[in-house]
Amino acid sequence: MARYRDGLKQATCLLEAAAWHYAVKVSCGCGHFALFDPHVLFWRFHCRGWPDDFRAVRAKMWCRACRQSLGQKVRPRRLDLIQPYPRDMITLTQPDEREWKRILNRYRG
Prior knowledge:
This protein has 109 residues and is α+β, with helices and mostly antiparallel strands. The chain has one domain (3-101). The protein is built from 5 helices and 5 strands. The strands form 2 sheets. Strands 4-3-5 form a 3-stranded antiparallel sheet. It has a two-stranded antiparallel sheet with strand order 1-2. It starts with a strand and ends with a helix.
């Protein structure tokens, strides 16, 4: 369910970020960051049966650069939403258009 800050809606899960077209920026304490397309990130979590709220998303992600240098998984420090879409986002497999519309209708319904 969306939160409100200063009268504006704020997404609390990946489905809301995807429905409202916000890119997801994941930042590590070391300074590295990655930008994800919210549709594919939601689809990945949905297909695996993982919860899509931002606390659960943060617990599933880790910094690849820190993993290579330190040899252990380092969880991201921040998850931010960015609009408009940047061009250099990480994209994975897209959901089928029919399936995506079914999910959105269930969300809005």
